[in-house]
């Protein structure tokens, strides 16, 4: 395994921002809850600014988590948002670097989380920059999602502008912030009741906000739940989602599934990330239930190999019972990534050279190998059984010297 890629690869671009988000949220909550401030920065930074940094820090943490969802989909806008939010989180961590007093808890050094927050934020930036090319997808919103966003934004603007224009006919509504607050709690059906209409015109307007706002919220919620439902359906059908596939690197592609594939899967499990591409839906569903990454598609087609990240794969394995199908899959894999290591298993001995010509770097014939060991053992050659045991369990330290 390539350690630099482990620390600065695709997974790091997801894990590090998540840690920053959690620390930012925790640091913000600690400072919001504080009743007094002391420490190196306590006298330098006004309490109002520190408390504001606490609120905004918690919001930054939540926003970073939303950006991580976009990073999992390799969205370019999510990359830009994360690159902007990481320095913001670092600055907020510096502002909140003090000792705070929390009711019923006592003096708590916020530096215990703010210093790691600053360090991780600064560490995440070069990781994001090094992996910039991976996040190349534009936002691909469906018509329904665009309509949901426009409806939600339009209803909020309508409610805010209208309630502010009628502010004299509402209780406790005098600023644009009050107007937006009223619109938000009304459209979301929370309705605290602290801002109420006092005239018939204001009541009619309030009813229109309820109708338009709840409808737009319902449409937006549906558009958000749609992808989640699609994900569950994909898993039920034995398919990985695009978000899961996008995180793969230095993995192994297993093209096709057959009797020879089962022991290969057993050997790969726990050793390295891998994806099985098979056209058999029943097999794909069974493998998915065993927490094995699988893609239901023709293993000789370009599209599923590209989705499975063949450009970042460490190796490709083709070992079904159909040498012809394996040759087609190998040919496609070699075309898409000439540098990848391709290993094939030949069911028939005469197909070994054919698989090599198709692009396989290594071709192994289980029948020839097994026959050789059996014959050598029958001729009295000692150690054949130990060799077989060693091949079946290469991790057994007792056989390491064989």
UniProtKB/TrEMBL annotation:
Membrane-related topology note: Multi-pass membrane protein
Taxonomic source organism: Haloarcula rubripromontorii
Designated name of the protein: Potassium channel protein
Annotated signal peptide: none
Transmembrane segments: 12-37, 49-70, 77-95, 101-125, 146-166, 204-225
Keywords: Ion channel, Ion transport, Membrane, Transmembrane, Transmembrane helix, Transport
Principal location class: membrane
GO cellular component: plasma membrane
Compartments, as annotated in UniProt: Cell membrane
Example of a GO MF term: potassium channel activity
InterPro entries hit by this protein: 2pore_dom_K_chnl, K_chnl_dom, NAD(P)-bd_dom_sf, RCK_N, Trk_Ktr_HKT_K-transport
Domain RCK N-terminal: 249-365
Domain of life: Archaea
A Pfam family reported for this protein in Swiss-Prot or TrEMBL: Ion_trans_2
């Amino acid at each position: 395994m390539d350690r630099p890629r482990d620390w600065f690869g695709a997974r790091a671009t997801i894990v590090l921002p998540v840690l920053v988000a959690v620390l930012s949220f925790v640091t913000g909550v600690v400072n919001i809850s504080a009743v007094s401030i002391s420490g190196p920065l306590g006298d330098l930074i006004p309490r109002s600014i520190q408390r504001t940094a606490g609120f905004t820090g918690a919001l930054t943490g939540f926003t970073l988590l939303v950006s991580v969802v976009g990073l999992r989909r390799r969205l370019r806008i999510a990359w830009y948002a994360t690159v902007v939010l990481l320095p913001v989180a670092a600055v907020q961590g510096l502002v909140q670097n003090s000792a705070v007093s929390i009711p019923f808890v006592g003096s708590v050094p916020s530096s215990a989380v703010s210093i790691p927050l600053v360090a991780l934020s600064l560490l995440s930036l070069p990781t994001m920059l090094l992996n910039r090319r991976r996040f190349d997808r534009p936002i691909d919103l469906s018509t329904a999602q665009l309509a949901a966003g426009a409806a939600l934004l339009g209803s909020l603007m309508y409610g805010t502008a209208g309630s502010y224009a009628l502010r004299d006919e509402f209780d406790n509504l005098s600023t644009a912030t009050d107007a937006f607050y009223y619109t938000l709690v009304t459209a979301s059906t929370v309705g605290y009741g602290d801002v109420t209409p006092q005239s018939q015109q204001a009541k009619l307007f309030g009813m229109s906000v309820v109708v338009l706002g709840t409808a737009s919220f319902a449409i937006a919620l549906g558009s958000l739940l749609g992808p989640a439902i699609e994900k569950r359906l994909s898993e039920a059908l034995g398919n990985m989602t695009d978000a899961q596939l996008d995180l793969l690197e230095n993995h192994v592609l297993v093209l096709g599934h057959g009797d020879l594939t089962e022991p290969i899967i057993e050997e790969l499990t726990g050793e390295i990330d891998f994806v099985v591409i098979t056209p058999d839906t029943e097999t794909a569903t069974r493998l998915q239930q065993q927490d094995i990454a699988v893609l239901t598609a023709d293993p000789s087609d370009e599209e599923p190999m590209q989705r499975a990240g063949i450009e970042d794969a460490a190796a490709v394995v083709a070992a079904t019972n159909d040498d012809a199908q394996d040759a087609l899959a190998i040919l496609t894999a070699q075309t898409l990534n000439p540098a990848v290591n391709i290993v094939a298993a030949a069911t028939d001995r005469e197909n070994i050279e054919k698989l090599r010509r198709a692009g396989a770097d290594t071709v192994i014939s289980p029948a020839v190998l097994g026959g050789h060991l059996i014959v050598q053992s029958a001729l009295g050659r000692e150690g054949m059984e130990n060799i077989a045991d060693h091949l079946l369990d290469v991790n057994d330290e007792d056989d390491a010297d064989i």
